Amino acid sequence: MAVITGTNWNAYDASTMTAREIYGRTLAALAEKDERIVGVTADLEKTTAIKFFADKFPERFYNVGIAEQNMMGIAAGLAKAGFIPFASTMAIFACMRAGEQVRTDIAYQNLPVKIIATHAGISFGHAGTTHHCTEDFAIMRAIPNMTVICPADGIETSKAVQACVDLPGPVYVRIGRGFEPPAYADDNYTYEIGKAITMHEGTDLTIITCGIGVLQAVNAAKTLAETDGLSVRVINMHTIKPIDREAIMSAVVDTRRILTVEEHNILGGLGDAVASVIAESGKGCVFKKHGMQDTFATIGYAEDLYSYYQFDANGIVDKVREMMGMEFEPDENWDDE
Q1: 212-236 burial, b if ≥16 CB within 10 A, otherwise e?
Q2: Cα–Cα distance measured from residue 203 to residue 50, given in angstroms and rounded to the nearest whole number
Q3: pTM, to two decimals
Q4: Alpha-carbon distance 220 to 225, whole Å?
Q5: Using CA atoms, how far apart are residues 74 and 134, in angstroms rounded to an integer?
Q6: For 122, left (φ over 0), alpha (ψ -120 to 50), or beta?
Q7: Cα 27 to Cα 20: distance, rounded to the nearest angstrom
Q8: Which of 54, 128, 146, 271 lies 20 to 30 angstroms, CA to CA, from 29?
Q9: pLDDT band for position 9 (50/70/90)?
């Protein structure tokens, strides 16, 4: 990336690398300049791609074996000693198997442990339900002091990793498994934790999404403009907590229709976070949450599952068309509310 010197790749290579590989390479580059950075994993250094860091800094890397709970405890201890630990494991293990240690050892003490959770959502679909993770937003955003981030692609993963190093307290960064296509053409954009990014302007409806949904929503917005004459705004809500309230309310006022799209259970995730902001504002709109409908995902390759559960552009187009047939309260005067 342009802001990191000493790497042997750039943003234009992102289409040939997984987000986790970009994470590993970014972490290794950051560690060259910051000796506080250490790495911890639970026997998944290759799988999570922290191997790039481990190969470069073996004396600052700790593989604790298949013991995720112990890994989080060790990460907490390293943080207490003045280090900035990056703990790498699969999302399902980070939020559930080690959930108590994340809450009590790390978040309760507000320690700067950065949890990089790979294979999130249904991206590891063919591994089965035990390796799917569609509950982590709900779990992690309910833990005090925790920042929750879901980058749109590998380019944004690199930006998130860079941004979270000096952020006080724990951070949960959720990324997928495979070669998800880039949502960004390059890294020439401003990234700030807690500040959403408008990917496509629109006035008829707003799609608020994160992760794999960003590119698919942008493609859906382009299709809807061509086929239906609709003007659809797409917001990349890469930070689930703290959420960008201003971006949400601007969309409510401007478009009066909000569709959230997430690779997560519709309970407790991005949709509920957005709904809470809208409900607390007292302003009305047409609103729909699109995600896993409180069910476990079936087994299959990720690409097939994204289509089956309508997380792809075609599925999002259908959801938008459904919403355009729904009416909202015509009252435009919200000054008295």
Answers
A1: bbbbbbbbbbebbeeeeebebbbbb
A2: 42
A3: 0.93
A4: 9
A5: 26
A6: alpha
A7: 10
A8: 146
A9: low
